[in-house]
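Morning - adenosine monophosphate inputs below, output right after.
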Amino acid sequence: MSLTLYNTMGGRKEVFEPILPDRVTMYVCGPTVYNLAHIGNARPVVVFDTLFRLLQTHYDKVVYARNITDVDDKIITAAREGNRSIQSVTEEFTAKYREDMAHLNALTPTLEPCATDHIDAMIDLTRILVTKGHAYESAGHVLFAVESMTDYGKLSGRSLEDMLAGARVEVADYKRHPGDFVLWKPALDGDPGWESPWGRGRPGWHLECSAMVRAHFGATIDIHGGGRDLIFPHHENEIAQSRCAHGGDYVRYWLHNAFLDMDGEKMSKSLGNMRTVRDLLQHYRGEVLRFALLSAHYRSPLNFSAGLLEQAQATLDNLYGTLREVQDIEIDINVPLADEPFYQALNDDINTPVAIAEVHALAKELHKAVAADKPRLKARILAAGSLLGILEQDATKWLQAAGAGEAIDASDIEALIQVRQEAKLAKDYARADRIRADLLAQGVVLEDSREGTRWKRGSD
Ligand code: AMP
Ligand code: ZN
């Protein structure tokens, strides 16, 4: 089965064909590590993690790089404001980023290159661009000359003038054209800096990604991703740098996720509606956040809200409830993915909402299935789950896990179930019913069956 992806370059869906038949390269712009990741930042992580999982079903080797931007003005400001070293800021937020993303079941990328480990590669690339006449030195800066590239702006599909009108570009008298962007800038006293042919300085943000791609993958990669806001200027400028340095193509497939809004409003610090992943994890399990992020197609805007999270929680509880019914069924079944509607949906430009709907359909089928059909249905649901990065936990543990602030712990519940059992044996049904009602009031549901009493947290 072929994989189809929407390529921002050209603006249409295309059948994915990597440069090499058995090895795929993918680079996704990662965080600037000076603060905690918010839930919007998690959207590309979860989307491209799902693509990473999908690609691995097609190709033996998938090399996925997600960089860490650990040199940037915002980091310098954060360090200064917090009266701490740059390194302590970047180390803290790199570690927290990795932890938060792991909670969302995002697999560790194959490579996590840090900008500061690639300064030589950045200087090298800048030197090539200067030599080829695409960049010039001015007032201690090295700038890329946008007019030196005939098709600058092809990704965003707008003229240079239109692009500049809508974007914040720094107008500076040392630039030949207002769209010229910084490759290398001088480091002020006390700022991080590296010796270069143009004096002590540091790289511009766009240069960092081009240089890291070049260092790890060479001139051309298969897939480059990030949020829509990166199309211009970041990705446009990466294309300019890399193509002008190498001559050939830079990226074969450009993928961009749409934005996540909070309760219908743009998330921003000034509106006070920023939600960090870390904060949300205090109230919801990572898998609930992931499920909510995958509930919309990645190219559609996603309206994030408490309601969406409650719905995601309820849906996952339901699916885990179904899996608990078949928990004891052993499965050793090979699921031919090509026949699976959820797999077909994912191969159609990562259509996660349709894939999730197919998982629901399988769960419904499993409820009604005769015993002989259950193992295969369970295997199919789990195969979908492992591609979507959900349903990989023990179903009983999921259903019995306490949410934030829940008082009664599992051992007390088990003890009360035991007391209730003894009351029933002594025919003290009033007491047994009271225990059931007390537990329900504390958000614990008992389910009696021939095998004994099971419990879960919930309200029905
Ligand atoms: P930044 O740290 O701002 O460079 O963002 C890191 C990644 O998160 C980039 O790929 C952005 O495009 C993406 N991103 C930032 N805000 C949002 C949002 N509200 N919705 C979706 N993606 C976002
Ligand atoms: Zn980048």
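Note: The chain has a mean pLDDT of 94.

O.
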